[in-house]
Amino acid sequence: MSPEAKPEKKRWLITGCSTGIGREIAREALEAGHQVVATARKVEAVQDFVDDFGDLAIAVALDVTDRDQIVAAVAAAEAAFGGIDVLVNNAGYGYLSAVEEGEDSEIRALFDTNYFSVVDAIQAVLPGMRAQGSGHIINISSMTGLVANPPNAFYSSTKFAMEALTEALSKEVATFGIKVTAVEPGAFRTDWAKRSMHESSRPLEAYSEDVAVRKDLIKQFADHLPGDPRKVAEAVVMLTGLESPPLRLLLGHDVLKAVREKIADMTASIDEWEAVTRDVNFPAGT
């Protein structure tokens, strides 16, 4: 997909391969001849990759909220393939809720899966990547990691956190030859808004005319969203062949429009309030 792309084969570890974008990334990488550790909470959900691609694939059971299982998956990759060149942090799910409706246990579980598991996986692969002087960490973020709207406040929070982690990490590990990218898909036709979606069990009438309506729209249009998950997979595989991949890659007309509008709004607000912004320091020379 790019004149920069390189054809060499790499060793991948991908989380959340049972369905959706993770499954498509695993298949795309395998079809390109890469070696892939495909993971899912139930190993039988990814066994077909081994059946279809033989020694190029291994299937590993992985609950990303269990740090010991993450360490075991990395060890399995090292035993089978000798190391990891590409980590794709894809596992995650959504949670529809107004902020006031949010349930503490659900919010913490959401962060455990969507954010803290990413930290654990990154920490598990970095020693090997530093030792070999190369690697690429790809975090599957979201449009909602750049632009937050109801009823995704808590889901967005996990992705905003991932964006910060990605940005700082990229600066920390560049000297070791390790690349880092956040991929921000817009609305894609996956199970995100269907089978895997969680929702607050204590909706409040106060939000029925706004947040609740948005919840219903998300669920109603789940089967009609514009994004093709296979295209995300193609883009991710392309990224791993680039000498200078982007820190962020937006995917979809909707995310492009939303982010450009946010940048324009932020710029206008910064300009409007610039005098106040500048009027908080001690006078020069004091």
Characterization of this structure:
By secondary structure, this protein is an alpha/beta fold. The protein has one domain (11-276): Rossmann fold, CATH 3.40.50. Helix content is 45%, strand content 14%. It has helices at 20-31, 47-53, 67-81, 104-132, 153-173, 211-220, 229-239, 253-272, 274-278; strands at residues 11-14, 35-40, 57-61, 86-89, 95-96, 135-140, 178-185, 198-199, 248-251. The strands form two sheets. A seven-stranded parallel beta sheet has the order 3-2-1-4-6-7-9, with helices on both faces. Strands 5-8 form a two-stranded parallel sheet. β6 (135-140), α5 (153-173) and β7 form a beta-alpha-beta unit.
Provide the fold topology.
Blueprint: E1 11-14, H1 20-31, E2 35-40, H2 47-53, E3 57-61, H3 67-81, E4 86-89, E5 95-96, H4 104-132, E6 135-140, H5 153-173, E7 178-185, E8 198-199, H6 211-220, H7 229-239, E9 248-251, H8 253-272, H9 274-278
Parallel strand pairs: 1-2, 1-4, 2-3, 4-6, 5-8, 6-7, 7-9
CATH superfamily: NAD(P)-binding Rossmann-like Domain
The helix tally amounts to 9
**Structural class given helices, strands, pairing?**
alpha/beta
CATH topology: Rossmann fold
Number of strands: 9
End-to-end gap: 55 Å
What is the radius of gyration computed over CA atoms, rounded to a whole number of angstroms? 20 Å
What's the CATH architecture name? 3-Layer(aba) Sandwich
**Averaged pLDDT, please?**
92
CATH class: Alpha Beta
